Amino acid sequence: MASKRKNLSFAEKNELIERFQNSNLSKAAFAKANSIPRTTFNNILAAKLCSSNAQICDQERKRQRLSPYENVDKALLSWIKYARSQNAPISWNVLKEKSLEFANELGE
Length: 108
What we know:
Number of helices: 5
Largest sheet: none
Oligomer: single chain
Order of helices and strands: HHHHH
Number of domains: 2
Structural class: mainly alpha
Distance between the termini: 46 Å
Helix content: 55-70%
Radius of gyration: 20 Å
């Protein structure tokens, strides 16, 4: 049996948004014409997940998960780039220790 739900990728969502903006249909009529529930289409329009930063977004992804510790992630990423430039070994334990260290320094 086919699944009731269909997860759309960011590329498909962006295509729907562009087609809606170029059409003169209402939201409900456009959603019905594309066999999408009206509330789902309204959520897609409200979020516009990846349309503004499409160059940094993987278009095949289905969901965008944001980190609650964005500053820690940025600090850890810059440290990883530095460690790789120094050819230092990076293991899971080292990453965990560094992330906890950055979290304590940044107060998160």
